[in-house]
Structure formats: structure tokens, C-alpha cells
Batch of 2 targets.
Target 1
Amino acid sequence: MDREEFTSLYGASFPRLVGQLYAMTGDRAEAQDAVQEAFVRAWAHRGRIDAEHGAEAWVRITAWRIAASRWRRAREGTRLMLLAARPDRVAGPGPERVAFVEALRQVPAAQRRALVLYHVVDLTVEQIAAETGVPPGTVKARLARGRAALTPYLRESAAPVGD
Amino acid sequence: MSNLNDELRHLAEDGARQARPLAVDEVIQRGDRRRRRTIAWLLQQRARPGGLASPATPGRRFPRWVPPLAAAVVVIAVVVGAATISSAIHGREPAEQRPAASTMYVEYLALGRGRSVVIPVNTATNTPGKPIQANGADGGLAITPDGKRIYFTGNDEVVPVSTASNRPGKPVQVPGVASNFVMVMNPDGKTVYCVAFMDYDTIIPARMAIGTVGKPIDVSLNDSPPVITFTPDGKTAYVGTKGDTVTPINTATNTPGKPIHVGINPADIAITPDGKTAYVTGFRGDKVVPVSTVTNTPGQPIRIGADAEQIAITPNGKTVYVLAYGGTIVPVSTATNTPGQPIHISVNAAARIIFTPDGKTAYIAGLDGTIIPLSTVSNRLGKPIRISGAGPAVSIVITPDGKTVYVAALNKIVPISTATNKPGKPIRVPYGMPGGAVITP
């Protein structure tokens, strides 16, 4: 991937990837940080990345891993306190959105990731399986469980997923 | 809100609208800096006695972005030949004292075959032996202090090899790291710390002595590849961590201690031979921070006037040599923690510095393939040694008797006499890019 290709990828996909990571993580600042760092790594490792195929997925996977790594530390408490102190932690214009985001945060991370890859990124179950490194059956289970957990926070029932 | 699909999309769009990317030039600059550091670190670490696995992709010794010349690692291996043996084969004859024939192991990428090999080299005759197949992986090398085993990395595994038979033993499985991981050996030779290249938060201890992996150590590494240095007794590892800190890890329990704030993003850590002080350089700033390993508290930063990165300590522990970017070396007295006069060298970037066993001479390896002798007595530079086809000279190890240096280069290993500082007859090897090198005592 050369500089021109990287610049094009960066300009076109940065906001989209931040949005996807935001939906996965429920934290805008975290999403922004993770995607930014993932692009730095993408340029550093550009020789490994095929600009035409899979570059955006590479950045998304890397950003997810960065965010996931931070969650591990969050479990120890410190980071949770920092996140709680962030003024932009609560996103969206209304209480319903806030409730949804809060509900999303309660869903296990792997389920959130599967939901976003399916509903936002429009990947198939098989593609999600490839990106997340688990069998398709596991992806379906995650989608079903994630949806079940979030359904109470939706006004209308969602379309079946994962089939 | 309507349904899950819409809600998630709205959320993503919401996040996308408020995304605030850095300027692409800034991202590229940061990426370039990361790459330079990674290359220098890789090349440097490969020849360290502790060894290092490559974070390259499977079947490829170096990442594609490493330029061919940069990939031509210069590895200078130790000939621990000072030990002598009794000539048992001579029966009743008086024991004849002569240098033992050490075996040097050099890892090479078998070009066109997509796999690595480890080549044993008899240092008495300077002849290569039968290559040891590295199971399709691109590992680094480490050797136990007793010289009985070497370790190299495979796919999700670390492989021990008996130096008596040169045959691989049962690998220790390190799940989840694929072949893209870094391996650093504890000086006790019993444990290697493995860090997946893309994981900044977990160290997996592989207990080679008993063939199992321990519980992952959860630390927030400041960079990948990581900065990990063990105390000489192997009881503590000091690791570069986020937040401008270094974190001590108790290697008996593999539990991290309280991070020590050093105020710089750790780039290298060197520990004095007595194990009492760790000197930390950082990617930001022109200072070195001494840390007491007794109290785990930082001392007063030492200003050296240039961006400090690599660092080395003389065998007697009296002087720290700091390699600064731009071709400056600064000696620092460990007694007073005061810097001496900067020494300007002819290479723009020095990647590694090592010392003869008596500590009187240092060899500085430049990223341009030059090796520069330096008298630590007078701090005067000798005539640069250039190895054709060697690429960046970044890893230097000197024989215990101080007489020979080996440089692994493209398709050859070059011995250098430290008496004349001239390269000898190259040892030809039918492989391309060299990796780590170790040698039996």
C-alpha cells in the first residue's frame, strides 16, 4: 500500500470505522483513539496490507483488538473510573438512545462486535466468522444472544438475524 | 427508534459524524517513526543472548516493509571459547589446554522456500553444519546459559533443540500467538516471555523447563515490539509500559508490580551487572532515567542533549553508553549519574553497542552497515569497519576472549579479528537473510 492508497483509505474510511467501533464499544472517545492508533499501525505495517482487498477490515480488526485490550485493563477498575468521568460518554440526542447505548454496553463484547459487523458493516455470518476467528455457529449464537439482550430496549422487534 | 438494525446504524453514523481524524501526514509520520523503531529494535534484539522471535508474517523472515538491505541483518555472535577442556582422548598424556570448539547457531530465512533454518557453525573450523529445519516458522533464537539447548519460535509454539544432537525436542505450545510473536528469555534459561506482535497487553510465560505455559501476565506494554529486560539474576523483569512507566514483574509469580513513572516513553532498558539500577531511555526527550531496582523508584533524570534510544552498560558497570539518534554517543558515569562529553560518530544512527570482556573497547554498530571501535579508556574512535553486503550493522557480540567477532550477512558469515579490525574469509551459507545468532559456551 503506497502513500496515495493509504491517504485515500484514511480519508474514506476513518469516520466510518470510528462509527463502527463506537457501535461496538459504546464509547466514542475510545473508538476514536483505537481507530487512530490502528491507522498508525496500518501505515507502519503497510507492506502487509493489501490496499485493494481487506485494508479496511485490517484496520477495523486492529482497532477492535486495541479497544479490547483496553477493556481488559478496565476490568481492573481504573479505566472504568476514567471512562465514567468523560463528558461525552453518553451519546445520542435522547433518553431512548442513551438507554440503548447503556444496554449495548451490558452486552458481552463479542456479541456487540458480531451485531455491528452484521447490522452495520453488512458482513455475512461467514465473513464475520472469518474476521473474528470463530465458527459460523458461534457467530449465529452471538447474534441471537445479543439481539435477545437488546430487544427490550427497542420499540419494534428486529428482523431475524444470523440465519 | 425502530429496530436493532436501524438503531445500530444510527449509532454508527452518530460516531462517524463526530470522528476527528488527525491529519494524514501526522499519521504517516507516526507510522514511519513506529516502523523505524521496530526495525531497529528487531535488528538489535536478534543477536542478544536472550534471543528474539520475529514478528514477521509466517514464511517471511521480515515484514515486507523492511527494505532488502535493512533485512540483511548483521549478526555478530559470541564465541564462548574461553573455556578449556582436558584432552581426555589423550589418555595419560598431560591435559592439553586449548580453546573449546563452540558451535554458533545462526537463523536464516531459506529464500524461496518460505521457511527458516538454523545453521550450526563450528567456530574452530568456521564450517557450517547441517541446517536444522525451523518447522516453517520464522523464529528467533535463544540459548540457555549452560548452552545445552537453544529455543526458536514456531507457529504457536517455542521449540527446544538439544545442542548435543541438534535435534528439535517437543515444542511448548503458546496458544494464540501464531508465528507473529516476540520471545525474550529469562537469564535462568527456564522461561521465555512471549508477546504477540499485535497484543500490547499480555505476556505469556512459556516455561520451557517443564514444557507448559503459565498464566498470561496482564500489563499495558507501551509499544510493540516490547521493551523487556531481566535483572541478571532473572528474578525480575522490567517492562516498558504505557503512561511513561516501567513495570517490574516478579518472575517467580509472574505478577506485575506497581508501575514506576519515569516520565518518558520507554525505548530501552539496561540493568547494571549488580542488578541494582535500571537505566531507561525514552522515545521522547533527551534524558535517561535511573531506576533503583531495590526500591523501584526513579532517580533524577540525566540530560544527555540528544534523543536517547539504545543503551548499554560496560561489563564493570561503571559507565552507561547512550546511543542518541543523529550519531552521538554519550557516556554516563553510574557512580555520579553525570554525562560525559558526547562522542560523534560517522554514522547517522547507531543501533547497538557492545563491549569486549575487559570493557576497554566498545563496538558500535551503525544502521548503515558500519561497525566502529571505541576505546572506553580514551573515548576515541577507531577506524570504521565496513562489511560488504551486511546491511545495517545492528547486533554485535564479541567472543569472551575478545578476539573474534562474527557478522552474519546475506549469504555469508564474516569473522572479524578484533586485533586488526579486519574482516576474515567469509563463511558461505546458501541462505539469504540472517536472523538471530547464539553460541554454545
Note: Chain A has two domains: 1-89, 91-163.
Target 2
Amino acid sequence: MSGRLLPLVAGAALSLHGTLAAAYEPRINYMLQCMGCHTPDGSGEPGRVPSLKETLAPFAKSAEGRRFLVQVPGASQSTLSDEELAQLLNWMIQDLSVTKPAGFKHFTAVEVASYRGTPLVNVQAARERLLRSSAVTVTATAH
Amino acid sequence: MKWLDSLTEGSTRAVARRTSRRGFLGSLGGFLVGTSGLPLLPVARGAQPTPDQGGTPAKPGAKPDNSQDPTSCEYWRHCAIDGYLCGCCGGSQSSCPPGTEQSAVTWVGTCHNPADGRDYVVSYNDCCGKSTCGRCLCNRNERDTPIYVPFESNDYNWCSGSSKANIPYHCSTARIVAVAK
């Protein structure tokens, strides 16, 4: 191989490696970023780790709920890009949630970016408020 | 039988005329030195597998490859482990020893398997309920983040998140969850 071609090929290989390393499916990103605490089926651990199964779909219906889903520390402070986080949330709502919201509006990278910069000061209070608010109707199994 | 006697005598004398005892010792010595020197020749070293044939380059003083040995810290699944290997504590790399309970919460990472060249999602479930095992400490921590980046740090006592609060940590498993793609 000629000396001039080598840096080109090396550069292409490096950039390909970069994309491959970052681009996991949403299902794998759930395993790497969420599953450790929220458990494989999203049910969490009663009293310690909140369940994702019942709350995701109702929260995704209201503007405040959508903001919460992005701003919750495990999501906003993860190493995922805005695009990856949007895809992960969409996957969770479609594949993990027990209720499927009718006419669910998909998260986009732009929407995620608009919420992500603002941290939630009191996560638990924000969650309680969402659960109480009329916009959210959670089934009796929710904790 | 006289012809046999003369044949034996004749051939023995012929050998004795052509050879000497010192000559025999000399060739035997040359043969012994030659065979002991054979592995040093480039031909012998060229017969070992090279990296592109699936082997590892033989470096002087290089450590043996333990990436496929489940009881070794160098086992490929242990790339991000931080704890005692359950395989040394009465369990295995995927099951808890008797008398302990697997923690519900866990640290999850990816490890590269050199045997098939693929990355796997590995869950490091701790086994809890007995005092610290103390054997085969393995602390490799690939992609572990410092505690101030909390969501990808493994420096927690994962047993405290088990259904029985604050039960003691015993050892760690390394279970394959999926192929990372």
C-alpha cells in the first residue's frame, strides 16, 4: 500500500470504529444504561427503584410528563446522545410499558435537547406531583 | 558354518579398517548437540502460530492467555468486574454459591470475547447473604466511571439494594445478557 493512501484508510477505519462503538440498538442501551437498577422488565424494586412499566405511557401524554422522562437524572445525565436518548425513550414506551398510549408522539433529538439542559431539583416531588395530576391516570398496580 | 565365520570376520575387519572409536564418539556428540540446537533455528520458530492465524505472538516472558478460563481474573467476561469471583467461592461465573442470594440490582457493561470477536452485554450480579468470600479478588473495571459520574460507576455495594437491606456482600458473577449490537 502506498504511503499516501495509508492515513486515509486508517482515518476511515477509525471513524467507522467510532460509529460502531457508539451505535447500539435502543434495547442494548436500555440494558447498559437502565437495566442494572430498573431490572430487565422495568419493574424495579418496590420501595427502592421505581417501576417504569406503568408510568411511562401516562407520563408521555403530558408536556410536564415528557419533560420529566428526559430530565430524570438517569436519563439526562447518561452518556447517550440526544438522538440515542430519544430512540431509547420511544423503545421503552413501545416495548417495556404495560399500557400503550394511543397516538403516542415520538420523542425527537430536538425535543430531548430542549429539556435536557435543565436539571430536576427534586425528582421524587416532581414524580409525586405528576402521579397526582389529573393528566396522569395510573393503574392500581403502580407504586 | 565356516563361510559364516569368514563372512563375519571379513565384514568386522572391513568396518574396523574404515572407522575409529574416536570418530564414532565425535559423530554421536555432533548428533546430540545438533538435536538440542534444532529448536533455536528459524524453521522451528516459524512453525508456531502467528497472530493472524489465531495464535498469540510468543514473546519472551509473556504471560499465558487466560481469556477463556472462567476461574481466571483474565477471563474475557470479567473485563469490568470489581469483586471476588464466585467461581472460586463455591458458585460459578453465572450462579451464586449455596446460602447466598443474587442481588436484584446490578452493574451492567460490555466485554469483548476474543474467541469470536463479538461484544457481549455482561451483568455483574453480586451474591449476598454470607460474609466476604475473600478468594480470587478481581478488579478490572473496564468502562467503570468515577463515583462522581454515578450512573456508570460500579463502586457501590449492590447487595444493599437487595430485597433484604444491607445484607453482606459475598462474591460477584458475570452473566451474559445479550450480544451488544
Note: The mean pLDDT of chain B is 83.
